[in-house]
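hey can u check if this looks right to u? its 145 residues, i copy pasted from the old doc so theres a chance i mangled smth
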Amino acid sequence: MKNNNFSANKNGFTLLELLVVLVILGLLISIAAPNLFEQLGAAKRDTAAIQIVNLGASLDLYRLNVGRYPSQDDGLNAMVKAPADAGSQWKGPYVKKEQSLKDPWGNLYVYTFPGKHNKKGYDLYSLGADGQEGGEGDNQDITNW
């Protein structure tokens, strides 16, 4: 015959043991999370720098085909869609996706022509996580000069 009575010697965890484990996990996460977020921020800054180099190469190819860099009015959109004054010399698109014109924080890269800093004649940069000029850490500008 089967006994349906619960035994006092049942195996399992008590509520106190579970709470202790949760507190320990919370402490470990609070120690590790800042380092993890710093690594994520550094990865975004590195990605922005690489994307600026790639966009610069696309701008150079545009210049080879069209004979000039895109005007300030055309901006980086000239990398995706032919400007009205580019004519048949435009061999684009020079970037595959319009999303490539945005930095890792979702802001459009800033293109200035003629530029004030880069010897190539244009300035290309990201304003960082805050979208403001200047800053430090994740908020610092990433530039092509």
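DSSP finds one helix and three strands in the chain.
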